[in-house]
Design goal:
Elements (H helix, E strand, L loop, with lengths): L3 E6 L5 E5 H7 L1 E4 L6 H12 L4 E6 L8 H4 L2 E4 L5 H14 L3 E4 L5 H16 L9 E5 L15 H17 L5 E7 L7 H4 L4 E4 L5 H11 L7 H4 L5 E6 L3 E9 L21 H8 L22 H10 L13 H17 L8 H14 L9 H12 L11 H6 L8 H13 L6 H8 L4 H13 L4 E4 L4 E6 L4 E2 L3 E2 L1
Parallel strand pairs: 3-8, 3-9, 4-6, 4-7, 5-6, 7-8
Antiparallel strand pairs: 1-2, 1-11, 9-10, 10-11, 12-13, 13-14, 13-15
Helix pairs in contact: 4-5, 5-6, 11-13, 12-13, 12-14, 13-14, 14-16, 16-17, 17-18
GO molecular function, one term: ATP binding
Pfam family, one: DUF87
Keywords: ATP-binding, Nucleotide-binding
C-alpha cells in the first residue's frame, strides 16, 4: 500500500510527497542550523502521517507535546520515571501500538541520554510478535549520538550511542524507522548518519557541515554554497522515499505549534531619558515591597521517595491493633509475599508500588505497622520471587553475602538460580529467569547471566545436548542440566 505524505512544494509549485512505506524501510536524516525550520519539518511530517502509522517522538526540548491533544499522542515525562520504568513503558508502547512523545525537558544532558537509551533499548528489545512499523523521530540527535564524549560519562555516552546505532542500523527488521534531526552533521556520529538513505538538508553556514551535506546529496563541492543561501523552511531533498535527484522543497503549513516560538521584535518604551532615570531610581522612595508570593509547591518526588514518605506517615488518631507473636508476624509476612508474587502483573511493577500493596494487605491481616520498610521489603520481594517466602535463615547467609556485589534488581534472578543449585534441581530456563527479573526480553536475561558470570558468581556449562547447568563456585552448589 502506497501512502504519500505531502511535505510542501518545489520551485515550480508542484507538490513534493514522501512515500511513507518507502520511508519506513530507508530512514531519514534532517540537518539544518538553529532557525532553519527542522522542527517545523518534523511537525509537518508527524501531522500528515498521524493515523497512518504509529509515531514515537524523543523530544529533548518539549516542543512536540502540543501534538498530544489534537492527534492523540501520549506524553511521557522523563522526570517522572526511572530507567527501568521507561524501558518497560517502551515495550508496552510497541505491544499496544500507541503513539507517544517522550518529553525530556527539565533533565540534564546526561539524564536525557540515559532516559533515551533506556527507551530506545526497550523498543528495540520488544518481542518479535510486537514488531509493528513505527516512525521513531529523534530531535537534536547530536545530543544522543555525539562524535565525542563532552561532559557526560563514557558509560552514558556508549549506552546512548549504542541505542541510536541500533535504531538506525538494525531497527528496520524490527519495524523501527529512524528519523533523526541535527543542527550539525559534524557533531553527529558518522555510523548513525550513514545509515539514512533519505536526506532533507536545510540552511547551514560552516564549511565542514556544507561539505558533508553536499557529499550526502551527491553534489559537487562547488555546488555546496547554495546550501548556505537556502531560505528558512526550505530544504534540499534526496532519497528513494522523496526524489531520485536533489530537489528544493519549501515545507508547507502545520496545524499545531510549539509551546515557545522565536522571539519577535517589539517597540521599545517611548520615554525621555530623565523619566526613565526617575523610574529606575525611584525604589528608595517607594512604599515597602509587597510580601513575597508563597513558595511554589515542591516538585512531586519520585515514586520510591513518595512510597517511603507514605510509609513513614501515620494518621493522628489510629486505633491500635493487638500485638502479635513473632511467629505469627513471620507467617503473615510470608503469606502476603506469596499472594503478591502470585499476581501475574506484579512481575512488571516497581517495588515501591508493590510496597504500598504490601502495607494494605498487612493491615487487612491485622498487622500494623508493617514489619518491613521499603528497603527490607525490596530484599524480601526478591527472595519471594525466587521461591523463598520465609525470612532467609543462616543457611542462606553465604548466598546473600555473595549477592551484595550485585544491583538490587538482580537479586531475585540470582537467588532463583542459587535455590535450584542448592536443591540440585534443574537449571531455570531463560523464561523463568525473565519472569523473576521483570522482563519479557530473553536478550536481557542473557546479558544478566553474562554480567553475573563476569563477577565470578556463576559458571555456566552447556553440554552436547544443548542443556545448561550453572554452578556457584564459592558455595559448591550446581544445578542439574536443563533446556535453556
Amino acid at each position: 500500500m502506497t501512502i504519500l505524505v505531502d511535505m510542501g512544494t518545489d520551485r515550480t509549485g508542484q507538490s513534493v510527497p514522501i512515500d511513507l512505506e518507502e520511508l519506513l524501510a530507508t530512514r531519514l536524516l534532517v540537518q539544518g542550523n538553529s532557525g532553519s525550520g527542522k522542527s517545523h519539518l518534523l511537525r509537518r511530517l508527524l501531522e500528515k502521517s498521524a493515523g497512518q502509522v504509529q509515531q514515537v517522538v524523543i523530544d529533548p526540548e518539549g516542543d512536540f507535546v502540543t501534538l498530544a491533544e489534537p492527534y492523540g499522542h501520549v506524553v511521557i515525562d522523563g522526570l517522572d520515571h526511572s530507567e527501568r520504568e521507561v524501558a518497560a513503558l517502551a515495550e508496552r508502547i510497541r505491544e499496544h501500538r500507541a503513539s507517544v512523545i517522550l518529553n525530556l525537558e527539565g533533565l540534564e544532558a546526561e539524564g536525557q541520554m540515559r532516559c533515551a537509551a533506556a527507551f530506545l533499548s526497550g523498543m528495540f528489545e520488544a518481542p518479535r510478535e510486537h514488531w509493528y512499523p513505527v516512525l521513531v523521530v529523534v530531535d537534536e540527535a547530536q545530543l544522543f549520538a555525539p562524535t565525542g564524549g563532552g561532559e557526560v560519562s563514557e558509560e552514558v555516552r556508549r549506552a546512548s550511542l549504542g541505542a541510536m546505532t541500533n535504531l538506525m542500523c538494525r531497527g528496520r527488521k524490527r519495524g523501527l524507522a529512524g528519523i533523526i534531526a541535527t543542527q550539525r552533521l559534524a557533531k553527529l556520529a558518522k555510523n548513525v548518519a550513514a545509515e539514512a538513505s533519505n536526506f532533507l538538508m536545510g540552511r547551514t553556514f560552516l564549511d565542514i557541515d556544507m561539505a558533508r551535506a553536499a557529499d550526502l546529496l551527491g553534489m559537487e563541492r562547488r555546488q555546496a554554497e547554495q546550501i548556505r543561501d537556502l531560505q528558512r523552511g526550505t530544504f534540499l531533498a534526496l532519497g528513494p522515499a522523496v526524489s531520485r535527484r536533489a530537489v528544493s522543497v519549501t515545507i508547507g503549513a502545520v496545524e499545531t505549534s510549539a509551546r515557545g516560538g522565536s522571539p519577535k521584535l517589539t517597540p521599545l518604551p517611548d520615554a525621555p531619558p530623565e523619566d526613565m532615570k526617575e523610574l529606575l531610581f525611584s525604589f528608595a522612595e517607594e512604599a515597602p515591597p509587597p510580601p513575597p508570593p508563597p513558595p511554589a509547591p515542591p516538585k512531586q518526588p519520585a515514586s520510591e521517595a513518595l512510597m517511603e514518605r507514605l510509609a513513614a506517615s501515620r494518621p493522628a488518631a489510629q486505633p491500635s491493633l493487638p500485638d502479635k507473636e513473632p511467629e505469627e508476624v513471620a507467617a503473615i509476612t510470608a503469606s502476603v509475599l506469596r499472594a503478591i508474587v502470585a499476581d501475574a502483573d506484579s512481575a512488571y511493577r516497581a517495588p515501591a508500588v508493590l510496597f504500598q500493596d504490601f502495607q494494605v494487605r498487612c493491615r487487612m491481616e491485622g498487622l500494623s505497622p508493617p514489619p518491613l520498610d521499603l528497603a527490607g521489603f525490596t530484599r524480601r520481594l526478591a527472595c519471594a520471587r525466587a521461591g523463598i517466602f520465609d525470612a532467609p535463615g543462616e543457611d542462606w547467609a553465604p548466598a546473600l553475602d555473595l549477592a551484595e556485589s550485585l544491583p538490587d534488581d538482580m537479586l531475585g534472578a540470582f537467588l532463583l538460580v542459587a535455590r535450584a543449585a542448592r536443591e540440585g534441581a534443574p537449571c531455570p530456563s531463560d523464561a523463568e529467569i525473565a519472569e523473576t527479573y521483570g522482563t519479557s526480553s530473553l536478550g536481557r536475561v542473557r546479558r544478566l547471566l553474562g554480567y553475573i558470570e563476569s563477577r565470578d558468581l556463576f559458571v555456566s556449562r552447556v553440554d552436547l545436548a544443548g542443556k545448561r547447568s550453572i554452578s556457584l563456585p564459592h558455595l559448591g552448589w550446581t544445578t542439574r542440566p536443563a533446556e535453556v
